[in-house]
Amino acid sequence: MGCPCIPTLTQRVQPGTYRSPKPPQKLKPTDRRISTAGQIPEVPGMPLSIRQMMTVGCFARSLEDIRLCFSLIAGADRRRPDVPPIPLDRPSGKPLQDLKIAWSDEWPEVPVASEIRAAMESIVQTLSEAGVQTERWLPKDFDLSKILNLYGRISMYLTIYAQPQDRYNLRRSLELIFRTATQGDKELRKLGDFSRFLPEILNPSLKGYFEALTQRDRFTADMDEALEPWDVWLCPVAATAAFTHRPAWSAVDVNGRSWGGDKEA
Predict the structure, then answer these.
(1) N or C: which terminus of the chain carries fewer CB neighbours within 10 A?
(2) Whose CA is closest to 114, among 1, 257, 264?
(3) pLDDT tens, 195-211?
(4) What are the residues facing 259 on neighbouring strands?
């Protein structure tokens, strides 16, 4: 007997995000909407450090099953006091023809696989033929390189204090830094090069961590304001379709260019 919905992990910080060559329906909810307790247990003797940029969601066969899964696993959890007891109100919604939909099928700084762009264009054409208002759009002054830089800094702080600073983890960290600094297209490499964080990695500070979180808050506020006129923003969530297993942060081919940075948006 098959279970209709499969609660699983979708996470944004560490390598290991679930990938499926032919993905089912999936939901990545707002941060702290679902407890992450039990998903990535803390290393014995280490504090709970991964508190940002990680969400738990659902994979299922249909949207109905997604709703069921979300209703079962969302909500407060005494093991994670930072998950608030917010009720699961269902929005009334709008008729499809009344929606204002922005869409983007590429980013100026990084390539997006041609099959993903073709799928985006097909979706937008279908919506337009149904009478939906659509417009190609990117937020003003949207700088993906700054966002990737911020992601790298926060990820660095989270992982530094989430694992012991022993020889094994030091070697893995240096391997990752070397990989992002040497693999892939030279121009694209600049976006995901973790070697630029080496001075901060060697001398982390609470001030630096708070500065990164403050920058993240500003970016979130700017995005909220930019998205205010729109009901929906359709955009690629990854640069490629599912790729083969390989060491973390290894380069993959995207439209003939070797991309060694983070493949997800």
Answers:
(1) N
(2) 257
(3) 777 788 778 899 999 99
(4) 252
